[in-house]
Model the fold of this input.
Amino acid sequence: MLYRIGRALFRCFFTLFFRLRAIGMENVPKQGAVVLCGNHTSVLDPPLLGTPLKRMVHFMAKAELFDIPVLGAAISKVGAFPVKRGGVSRESIRLAVQLLRDGNMLGVFPEGSRNNAGGMGKKGAASLALKSGAAVVPVAIVGTYSLFRRMTIVYGKPLDLSAYAGASSEDLELATEAIMKEIRRLHSTYSKA
Done:
C-alpha cells in the first residue's frame, strides 16, 4: 500500500517538475523475475526507475539509511534492503537472488555509483540475473533533472545473456559490458530525440 502511494506521489512529482516521458514499458515483463539495469546520475534515479511501472521494484540501499529512524522504516516498507558500503555482503546477494527466484523485480545500477557514469560497470547485475534466471531489461535515464526540462526513461527489450551462462569472471565481465553497451545505446538514441 505504501509503495503504491509513494509511486503515485513520485509520478506526480516527476510529471510536474521534470515532464517525465516513459518509453518502452511494454518491454518489461508483467510477471516473473526481472533485473532492471539503469544508468545512475542522481539520488532520484531509484524512484524514477520504478515510477512508470505497475510492478514493485526492490532496491539495495546503503545500510546507513536504515539507521535513520523514519527513513529506515519507510524504505524497508517500499522494498529496499540494506547493503554495506565497500562491497555487497553474501546476505544481501542471497536476499536479492531469493527475491528474483520468487518472481520479483530488482532495480540495479551496474555503474555502481553516480560518479562512475560511463564506466565499465560492476558485475553484480549480471551475476544476479545469471544465478536467478531473471530477465535483464536495460534502462536509460535521459536528462539532467533540471526543473521543467524533459526527463525520459527508456525501457529496452530484455537482453539474452545465455551466452554468458558459465558465470566465470570473464563471462560476468562480458555480460556486464553487454548490459552497459545497450544502456549507452538507448541513452545515445533518445538523448537526440
Notes: The first helix runs from residue 2 to 18. The domain at 1-192 is CATH 3.40.1130.10 (Glycerol-3-phosphate (1)-acyltransferase). Helices lie at 2-18, 45-50, 69-77, 90-101, 124-132, 169-191. The first strand starts at residue 21 and ends at 23.
